[in-house]
């Protein structure tokens, strides 16, 4: 049987522009905000400021990378903030007990173990991820308090250790946290976009039943996503600990929602099955630059809240409107 | 005669001051054969604190110590205890005046005075440096909405113009009692203002966060850092010569004072209504007089 | 009751089984660990439990509707705080102050209207933009909180009116005012969801929105009405609670959304929409409140409370799963 | 007939999607009391045309007339208000709700205070259900019904309102013969009441049985209208696909090889009991039965999706325990599932990725997915199955129903399985592709694969199978060779009558 191509429209440039807009709605929103802030305050685009914003977004950003995996696989992770506090406290405590070379792998192992527990509960036991991670948010906080006895953790000899390199070091004039963030984003971006595992993550999030029918071991994929998330959290905790060389038990508190906001702002759907690492990075940067931009303009923090609200909705609106090709929702 | 005393704290996990307070309180109670305690934590939530007050009343304890999450919202709950003939002792930060009738005593630091003292430390330092007429400063306040944060900021802002009328407070942003948050706020300040001579932080945790930011930008040497509630990190930074001054406040004293006040009330002793314990100034110059904080 | 019915009841009602377990546990543990001579299941204590469940419970009823509808509302905590501010602040407005205690019903009305208006804003955005409710209300959680701070900076907003407090503390037929509100709201929402066309449409939309659209249900306005209802209930919760406490911190109500959602999900409502029950939500609210109260009763410290609450949440979910396991021959997907 | 005013008329409708011109100036009308068939290959634009009519899509050009009056269908509500009832190709039901609530979705009868009038609702629903002769009542929860029964619920909606026109978009795709008969009675009734009916189907025998006229679309263009009584299948096929069909059966019998799969005394709860059969390499075994006969469940067990309570499964003579589809796939079993949307496809993923999903782990270049190899596989099966899509990047959710089904088939064919199980493989597939799929099945057998075909279409089973297994209520009643089988003894078998009982 001979095959005919489907009826097509000609090479309409309008349609191509439309498709591009649909794909890159969030990027365009990002550019618009940057232009807006630059107009409002000329310091905004200074290299120092840009680097500063990215550096302070790096911790949030690294966590958002992992949560992107979890969200694409169709689940949520509300425990990242609490888990990050745990990692930070643990690595600081072990630093003085074991030395940095042992403390770091030990902390990663402990964080990944908790990630594995969550992954087991959500992946293998199929418990609802929102509630499991909400429960873990509380439980891990309890664990952290038990571990630290509720005390702040500080590295005793702050000058005599190379531990500060992760948070405060620089290479080629670029702060190390930015380098870590960029490297991890590149690595995970490739994993998600190019490897069989990444493909499975999309399939499981897009339609878990169909994925199972295609021979994908769904539980294993979900489990792995939580491990990725825990790995990112551990990395974030490392940067955090190294940056301030000491910490409170609540250092990551409340970050789970910021992280989620960044991931969603990047266009990942909470229903699972869509989103990319690149867009998450954009989402992280938008949040970082909004905060910074408003701070530079000198608005009260609560004005920032309101502006962030408006910007989140406008950005996501632009994104979905571009995808569906019309501004207003078609629902009656 | 054994006293059963209930305490409802503000938010224990949030920082090591409150944790140390709780530990010290329990230790003091255990050391005293005469008392048994029920220790509750409101987790920063007024509704939960009010529920805990009701529970303590329902359990018929002999006295209630409350560390209010909101100095006014708890007044009706305090009145309930009063009506049930249970004496209430307020600790750490006071409740509002309408509630004074229902309260046996207050025990804690004077946050307004603390703010004022921080302003004095800052001003004195500027005078030593001879920049009291041109200095520009920023403030990083505590968690928005909390009495302690509000009172310290107020004390500072009221006192500063009295002692150093020409110092300008350029901007205030909250650091949420959080070192990392404060570090971010300070980073933005550093970009925004080329000339910052001083930073007042609502506690040393935030102060050290700001110091870290300034160090990273290579500008720590130009800035006078003054905080409050001298934490161990602040004390160390002071010892290193990075951090100028703070207010020495011990959670152990705070907790022991509260428990003692409660016992005194129960024993029918005459206690003053406002039981402030002293919170002296601490700076690089006099820090030798103080031991390093344990929290 | 036939055995078949009993087993379906158990399956549906994992939450009630869990409540019974909690009560037994805290009663026994209380005997050994509590300072109080009174039993945990003391009648007055149980009445207090109902009363203390009211702030979360009233909002949870609205959240059940929203979640059955296939949406979610993360802004309820901020709505709660803003309504409280309006309630307390409006009583100090000159014309209101002039009315004396007659200002109270007006203050309530203003607060409730605030809630409805905030809900309408959320609902309208969800309707017109088609942006997922999770995102809209996540934004609103920040935005409304910003409005809260704008109103009075970082200062608490206070107005202590003893008439109001006395009303809120009153007991009628043995139940506290707050309990009455909780029970009324529960009954009303049960009626709405099971007996009215609006309620049934809520289930249909949550189950299959496309089918509902195809069937000609006006999904947009429907969703907006539901957001107005939850806004109203969040405000009502504030009215009930702040009538008794008289002062609101700008931070009040933070994390309420998470607790409320937890209660609703514990009650068995699906996060994906289409199924859920008001009565089970009531169970979910009680379960959380008993847990908090019980842990206090036996004198658990902060670390333990956090640890236990977290693990229990997961355990209940697990229990529910075990009770609902389908036969071995079920499809393994 | 032309002197009557059409109940509905569509004029020069154009509808484009990004990259696709789905409708290219199509005109179409339906008269009152007429059953008008709309035919065309998969992706020809039938559903799109109906969605334009039903207010779900807005046309780029063209107009719609109801009676004489031009109208704008801005949304489904408008269409409904104009008396147009749309029975969708894809089920559009709320599964947690009852049958009654689904049938009256959007127009539940009301009492005061917005209360639902349950009494009226249930009474009316039961009346309609009686008319449809179905075995469930108004209070049944839709999610517990089989797909066929869910389809009947959809159809029941046509009877709830005073309709001017009813659109049936492939209503029989998942119905068995008995239910089809009921459906045709319903259509007759509606016709007598002067309702205009638009009927979309790929099944010629139905088209010739119930329709008055046939309009044909091809590649989004209108190709002409035929009067059913004056035409034949061949002419319609010509118009649809531009050539005639070769319907002869591929008789190239491969030598039957070894037993590829053997099932001994398999039971699974009360889904099916004590089922034994074997399929040899090179053999096509058809499974025929009524809805609920348990065929799908057997297939799912063989695919590792269900745990059997008793019995054994042997592959190449060796007993296996399959715990998951991954296990089954590793042993060379493939399943084209019954429910393509729920089980077969990730709708939000593109065509290529869907097709290669089961083998991503094998298609690797270093640590990465070998996208070139994937595209090659996709191209190969697109050509072989004639899948209409602008390219592999198109999201599967945007394909027409039949093309979606072809993606699923391609996905499993490309695995080169030992045992291929296909469950209702040609549901919603056009005649051209259907015969192509039948050929493919035969070819596979000829190449030495074992094939299990589950189908509710008797002609299909008769056409492709070497052997036919009849099932009734979870039991295997009888196995026929292609020489023994007749329509009569097959129908008796699937109604539970065993050969010995008949003799008695
Ligand atoms: N939402 C959409 N976005 C992009 N393309 C679409 C969309 N809906 C339909 N199409 C395309 O329009 C064409 C016509 O599809 P339609 O569903 O109308 O076919 P059909 O005739 O109903 O086929 P079938 O017999 O398989 O159901 C197809 O090429 C399809 O891919
Ligand atoms: N006698 C029966 N009456 C009604 N439902 C039944 C009966 N037997 C089994 N069922 C249910 O019907 C479903 C059978 O589904 P299904 O219709 O897919 O079976 P099948 O034999 O594969 O039929 P088909 O493939 O023709 O749809 C099962 O979920 C089973 O619980
Ligand atoms: Mg179609
Ligand atoms: Mg079947």
Automatic annotation (TrEMBL), chain A:
InterPro entries, A to Z: ABC_transp_permease
Transmembrane segments: 20-40, 52-72, 102-124, 130-150, 171-193, 221-239, 259-290, 302-322
Cellular localization per UniProt: Cell membrane
MF annotations from Gene Ontology: transmembrane transporter activity
Membrane topology: Multi-pass membrane protein
Alphabetical UniProt keywords: Cell inner membrane, Cell membrane, Membrane, Transmembrane, Transmembrane helix, Transport
Presence of keyword Cell membrane: yes
Xref: Pfam families: BPD_transp_2
Cellular component, GO annotation: plasma membrane
Keyword set includes Ribonucleoprotein: no
Major place of residence: membrane
CDD domains: TM_PBP1_transp_AraH_like
Protein name stated in the entry: ABC transporter permease
Automatic annotation (TrEMBL), chain C:
Subunit structure, as described in the record: The complex is composed of two ATP-binding proteins (LsrA), two transmembrane proteins (LsrC and LsrD) and a solute-binding protein (LsrB).
Keyword hit for Transmembrane: yes
Species for this entry: Rhodosalinus halophilus
Coiled coil (UniProt feature): none
Record GO terms (molecular function): transmembrane transporter activity
Topology versus the membrane: Multi-pass membrane protein
Protein's job: Part of the ABC transporter complex LsrABCD involved in autoinducer 2 (AI-2) import. Probably responsible for the translocation of the substrate across the membrane.
Transmembrane portions of the chain: 15-35, 56-86, 106-127, 134-152, 172-193, 223-243, 303-319
Annotated keywords: Cell inner membrane, Cell membrane, Membrane, Transmembrane, Transmembrane helix, Transport
Any one cellular-component term (Gene Ontology): plasma membrane
Domain of life: Bacteria
PANTHER family noted in UniProt: ABC TRANSPORTER PERMEASE PROTEIN YPHD-RELATED-RELATED (PTHR32196), AUTOINDUCER 2 IMPORT SYSTEM PERMEASE PROTEIN LSRD (PTHR32196:SF71)
UniProt key word Cell membrane: yes
Protein name stated in the entry: Autoinducer 2 import system permease protein LsrD
Subcellular location: Cell membrane
TrEMBL record, chain D:
Gene Ontology MF terms: ATP binding; ATP hydrolysis activity
GO CC term, one of those recorded: plasma membrane
Domain ABC transporter residue range list: 8-244, 254-498
Keywords: ATP-binding, Cell membrane, Membrane, Nucleotide-binding, Repeat, Sugar transport, Translocase, Transport
Location in the cell: Cell membrane
InterPro entries, per the entry: AAA+_ATPase (IPR003593), ABC_carbohydrate_import_ATPase (IPR050107), ABC_transporter-like_ATP-bd (IPR003439), ABC_transporter-like_CS (IPR017871), P-loop_NTPase (IPR027417)
Major site of localization recorded for this protein: membrane
Pfam family, one: ABC_tran
Topology of the protein relative to the lipid bilayer: Peripheral membrane protein
Repeat listed as a keyword: yes
Cross-referenced SUPFAM superfamilies: P-loop containing nucleoside triphosphate hydrolases
Protein name per Swiss-Prot or TrEMBL: Sugar ABC transporter ATP-binding protein
Species annotation: Rhodosalinus halophilus
